[in-house]
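ok so I'm stuck.
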Amino acid sequence: MFLLSLTSSEQKQLESFSSEFELVATKVGITNPRGYYELVFSAAIWIYHQRNNAHAGTWVQGVAGGQGSGKSTFAMLLGLVFERVFGLRTVSLSLDDFYLTLS
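replied:
not stuck anymore, here's the structure
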C-alpha cells in the first residue's frame, strides 16, 4: 500500500489532519471516514509528488468515474487535503458547471 512509503513528515501530516478530515467527511455522509482518508491522502501525496516532479506552476487533475460514483465528493476532499496540508490553492470544476443552467 502507498501509505507504507510515506516519509516521516508525510506520516505526521496524515496523523495531524485526520480528525479534521473525518469531521468533514462525516458531514458529507461518508460512513468510514478513516478508510476514505487513507485513500484520499494517498492520492494527494501521489499527485503532489507528480506535480513537483513536473515542476508545474499550475496543475490540472481530472477525476473520472460513473454517474453517482463520488467524483465530486472525492474532488472536494482532495482539495481540502491540498489546501490544509500542502498549502495549495485549489479550484474544483464539474462538467455540470458548464452545461446546466443556474436554475
